[in-house]
Specification:
The protein has helices spanning about 5-20, 30-50, 65-80, 85-100. It is an all-alpha fold and about 120 residues long. The mean pLDDT is about 95.
Length: about 120
């Protein structure tokens, strides 16, 4: 079994790391720019791995590290702004469920028919 980390624990671990090794958090605006940069790095890998672009020699090809970088900076921003991401995610799921519980099921763009005539 893997050692699982809850969102709250991840927020705590990042905060502990920042105060132990990072001296202090970067400013919120700097971290927003860093988040944008990390999302761009993830996008580059996704475009090359799953899209039409090809990798350059020596370029990273796995998205996992970039996804972790995105999560790290998001956790930093949540800590800096006092956001409990566990509660925020719970509320976001409730909002999406109330708003979209039928919308996607009724979207013909998301349904398809298999070769045996079944809806997918």
């Amino acid at each position: 079994m893997k050692n699982e980390i809850t969102i709250a624990e991840a927020q705590r671990l990042v905060d502990e790391w920042i105060h132990t090794y990072g001296v202090r958090y970067f400013s919120e605006l700097t971290n927003m720019a860093v988040l944008t940069e990390e999302v761009g790095e993830l996008a580059r890998i996704m475009a090359r791995k799953y899209g039409d672009q090809s990798f350059k020699d020596g370029e990273p090809q796995e998205p996992s590290d970039e996804m972790a970088d995105v999560l790290w900076v998001l956790l930093c921003l949540a800590n800096q702004t006092g956001v409990d991401l566990t509660e925020a995610l719970r509320k976001n799921i409730e909002k999406k469920t109330a708003r979209d519980k039928e919308r996607h099921k009724n979207n013909p763009k998301l349904t398809f028919t298999t070769t045996d005539g079944k809806k997918g």
